[in-house]
Amino acid sequence: MNAEPNDPTDTVVVGRIGRPHGVRGEVTVEVRTDDPDLRFALGAILRTDPADRGPLTVAGRRWHREVLLLAIEGVESREAAEELRNTELHVPVAELPALEDPDVFYDHQLVGLTARLPDGTELGTVDAVRHEGADLLVVRRVEGGDLLVPFVTAIVPTVDLAGGSLVVDPPEGLLDL
Known about the structure:
Elements: E1 11-21, E2 26-31, H1 36-39, E3 45-49, E4 56-64, E5 67-72, H2 78-82, E6 88-92, H3 107-110, E7 114-116, E8 122-132, E9 134-141, E10 146-150, E11 158-160, E12 165-167
Parallel strand pairs: 7-12
Antiparallel strand pairs: 1-2, 1-6, 2-5, 3-4, 3-6, 4-5, 7-8, 8-9, 9-10, 11-12
């Protein structure tokens, strides 16, 4: 099951193991990457959270309807697969391909940015990015609580990664939610 030690390098989540499938140790995977064919290729080594469950090496991959099924090296029974349930699968940030579109960002690039209004007033910090039909920034407000901001150019016209901030130009009522 272990291919190489988990090391503490900066990583991003590419999936989460769900329930076992069948009796031979396959697991279902909730995919959290745009390129599952690359991330879950035969022989791919995936870091895990919790770390003591991995790293895991992909021994096989197939799609069953719209669900990704993985065979993991050393996991050969339904019981062994069940022990991996809810394990997050990670890859090092350094292995991510560069994005060619300047208006496209990885979630980890947005988390931690300071959210400001167009006049410079600080709203808070981007705490997470949710993908629920539309991309939503979860902004932890300076005064407490969270604000969900649709991540669209009309509402977030500027993202300055180097400066560590983004501009939120909210439509009327958004800040009242």
